[in-house]
Amino acid sequence: MKYEMTNKDDTLSNVQQSEDTYLSIRSYVIDAQKQIYSAVNSAMVTAYWEIGRLIYEACGESERAAYGKQILQYVSERLTSEFGKGFSVQGLRNMRQFYLAYPKRSTLWSELSWSHYRLLMRVEDEAARSFYTEESVRAGWSVRQLQRQINTMFYQRILSSRDKESVASEIQTTVPRPEYERIIKDPYVLEFLDLPSNEHFYESEIEQALIDHLQKFLLELGRGFSFVARQKHFVVDGRHFYIDLIFYNYILKCFVLFDLKTGDLTHQDIGQMQMYVNYYTREMMNEGDNPPIGVLLCADKSDTLVRYTLPEDNTQIYAAKYMAYMPTEEELKRELNLDEFHKMDEFGQ
């Protein structure tokens, strides 16, 4: 009996050792494949940039004129006959546009694929394009994620979230703005929840939907967020309180508290969030943490109400709208322009 047990133990040990060996080898193969893909991708991007440079130097600004068309057609036919697809006239024009969008080769990122750059070079605003490029690298966005952020005007919403004075002062100085102003957005686009339009929802239903789609919500929140808790419970003088959603942002090095409001935002809601933030500041902060931030995510809000309820030097509490469907570009522009109009009105302009 003892002999049989020993054989079984040896067999299990051999199986486990075989599995461990396989997993170790597999990890090396995957790492090698990633390095090969990264190297090939980087070489492709660099080659397309160089092709774009040569086409621009050959055609100048006249690539659509007769002379430029002749060059493009000739090069396209020769490259296609030798190397196959990928060198159509339009493809060569894309490479030229790529060079014009990124005229300095040193600004290219090896982490981004040609598919990333095809989306990025269509962003006409240079500041927005630089923002999306850097965020794609830092946040590790896939091509689909980058496309969503561009379509929902991520950059414009970041700008809209900041007050007019901050925007004006940034133009006149090279000092970087506080990091939290880049991270807290307004509005948030929650089209991935698939909420039916023109229906009333309870806050608990939206909260549950966000939890069910947590990965997509984290993408919408932006860089550095990790989920901590939902319905965080604490007691003050025998009274029970619940914070809807708690995140930690490792860039800001602070907790970020979200409270969901399906109706219009009230000054009582703002006061309650102030209490939540105070509680986390005094009871929950860890050594090295920055003060927590509270975000009231609501269906509608009054910037004037928020401004008069909070102190002028407030950097901890924000109110932001949520949009339950993917708006058109025109709708988003109207929304952002309306926010800017309200801010200008508040400052008496």
How does this model look, in words?
- With 349 residues, the protein is of the alpha/beta class.
- It has three domains: 2-108, no CATH class; 114-151, no CATH class; 157-346, Trna Endonuclease, Chain: A, domain 1, CATH 3.40.1350.
- The chain has helices at 2-59, 66-83, 89-101, 114-120, 126-139, 143-151, 154-160, 164-171, 180-183, 203-212, 214-221, 267-284, 303-309, 329-346; strands spanning 188-189, 225-236, 239-249, 254-264, 293-300, 317-323.
- Strands 1-6-5-4-3-2 form a six-stranded mixed β-sheet.
- α1 crosses α3.
- The longest helix is centred in the N-terminal third of the chain and has 58 residues, at 2-59.
- The chain is globular and about 80 Å long.
- The model is unreliable at 163-178 and 339-349 (pLDDT under 50).
Please name the defining characteristics of this protein.
alpha/beta, globular, Trna Endonuclease, Chain: A, domain 1, 349 residues, 14 helices, disordered C terminus, 57% helix, 6-stranded mixed beta sheet, 3 domains
SSE diagram, text form:
Blueprint: H1 2-59, H2 66-83, H3 89-101, H4 114-120, H5 126-139, H6 143-151, H7 154-160, H8 164-171, H9 180-183, E1 188-189, H10 203-212, H11 214-221, E2 225-236, E3 239-249, E4 254-264, H12 267-284, E5 293-300, H13 303-309, E6 317-323, H14 329-346
Parallel strand pairs: 1-6, 4-5, 5-6
Antiparallel strand pairs: 2-3, 3-4
